[in-house]
Design a protein that fits this description.
alpha+beta, 2 domains, four-stranded antiparallel beta sheet, three-stranded antiparallel beta sheet, 42% helix
C-alpha cells in the first residue's frame, strides 16, 4: 500500500484510541507507527538494486519486527508523554495495532510481504488491491483531513473515524468478493478449455478491482491474459510467453540473477532485446496488455547494466498510457 494511505489510516485509527484530553497527538503517533515498517527504504542508500528489491517489505514487515518495534515505540511514547493516564499496555495495544495493520494491508498487494522473516523467505501476497487504489485510499484520506482541521472537542470526530474505517473495510470486502468471482470463473473456464497449468495467480490491474491480470505457469513458460468481473464470455483468451531460461545459462549464478529469481518467486521470463538480456517479473503485469497482448512487462530489469535499473518497479507501470489505451482499458473493465 502507498505511504500516504498508511499515514492517513494510521492517523484515523489513532483518533479512536485516546480521549479528547490527549488532543491530536494520538493521530501523530498513529501515522508514525503505520510508517515504521517502511523504514526499509533506507536500504537503497547502500544496497544494490536487486538486493534492495529483496530487502524491501522484508524483515521490517515481519511479525518479529512488528513485535519489537511495538514494544520500543510504546515505551518511548509512555515516557515521552509523562505525566498521563495511559497505561503501557494500552500504548502497546494501540501502536501494535497500527504496525500490524500496515503488515496486513501490504499483503493485499502483489509485491509480497515477508511476514515470517528471518525464519522463512516466503512472501505473503493476496493479489487483491493494486498498490495505488484511489477508492481504497479516499475514505481514510478525507477523514484524516477532517480530523486535522476540526477541533479536538468536535462532536463528530469519532464518528468520522469509524466511518472511514468501516468504508475501508467494506471496500476491501468488495475487492475480495470481486477476486473470488473472477478466480472462480477462471477455474471453471480453464477446466472447460482443458488448459493445464501447475500454478496460477490473478492480480488487479491499476486503480481498480474489476479487471484482473491472469498468469498460469506451464512447463516452459506462462499463459497470460485478462479477465474482468463483468466478462460474459465463457472463454479465456491467453497468450503464451516462454520462460527462456537458456538466456541465463552464462550468468545464472550471478548474485543479481539469484536475487531477481528470489524476488519474483519464480514468476519470471527472460527476453533478449537486441544485445540486452532482460529479466521480467510477471507479477506487476504488462504495460498496456489489455490493448495489445504482446506488450512488454511493466517490471523489466536489464541484466547487462546498459539500461537504467534505478526505478525498475515503477518504470513500465504507466508506459504507453494515452487516450487510446485508457479508453481501451475502461472498455476492457466493462467486459468489452
Amino acid at each position: 500500500m502507498d505511504s500516504l494511505t498508511h499515514i492517513a489510516l494510521g492517523a484515523v485509527i489513532g483518533e479512536l484510541f485516546t480521549d479528547k484530553q490527549f488532543g491530536k497527538k494520538a493521530m501523530i503517533w498513529g501515522a508514525l507507527a503505520q510508517s515504521v515498517p517502511d523504514i526499509d527504504f533506507l536500504n537503497a542508500l547502500w544496497l544494490s538494486p536487486t538486493a534492495e528489491l529483496v530487502a524491501h517489505r522484508g524483515f521490517t514487515h515481519s511479525i518479529l519486527f512488528a513485535m519489537l518495534a511495538t514494544f520500543l515505540l510504546a515505551v518511548t511514547a509512555e515516557r515521552f508523554h509523562r505525566p498521563h493516564n495511559i497505561s503501557l499496555r494500552k500504548w502497546i495495544f494501540f501502536l501494535g495495532t497500527e504496525i500490524f495493520v500496515h503488515l496486513f494491508l501490504d499483503a493485499f498487494n502483489n509485491y509480497g510481504t515477508g511476514w515470517y522473516e528471518p525464519f522463512s523467505q516466503y512472501r505473503v501476497s493476496f493479489h487483491t488491491i493494486f498498490v495505488v487504489d484511489p477508492m481504497f485510499s479516499i475514505f481514510g484520506g478525507i477523514a484524516c483531513l477532517f480530523l486535522i482541521f476540526k477541533p479536538t472537542d468536535h462532536i463528530h470526530r469519532v464518528r468520522w473515524a469509524w466511518m472511514a474505517i468501516g468504508c475501508t473495510l467494506l471496500y476491501l470486502s468488495f475487492a475480495l468478493f470481486n477476486k473470488y468471482i473472477v478466480t472462480k470463473d477462471i477455474y471453471r473456464i480453464t477446466e472447460k478449455q482443458n488448459i493445464a497449468y501447475s500454478r496460477s495467480f490473478t492480480t488487479p490491474t491499476p486503480f481498480n478491482t474489476w479487471l484482473y491480470f491472469v498468469v498460469m505457469e506451464q512447463k516452459d513458460g506462462f499463459q497470460i491474459g485478462y479477465r474482468s468481473f463483468f466478462d460474459s464470455e465463457d472463454t479465456l483468451r491467453l497468450n503464451f510467453f516462454p520462460r527462456n531460461e537458456h538466456l541465463l545459462k552464462d550468468i545464472r549464478d550471478h548474485e543479481e540473477v539469484e536475487n531477481l529469481k528470489r524476488f519474483s518467486q519464480g514468476w519470471y521470463t527472460v527476453t533478449q532485446q537486441d544485445s540486452l538480456i532482460v529479466f521480467n517479473d510477471l507479477r506487476f503485469g504488462q504495460e498496456v496488455g489489455w490493448y495489445d497482448p504482446k506488450q512488454p512487462f511493466a517490471f523489466h530489469y536489464y541484466l547487462d547494466h546498459k539500461g537504467d535499473n534505478s526505478l525498475v518497479v515503477q518504470r513500465g507501470r504507466f508506459a504507453q498510457w494515452n487516450s487510446l489505451t485508457v479508453r481501451s482499458f475502461l472498455s476492457r473493465i466493462r467486459g468489452q
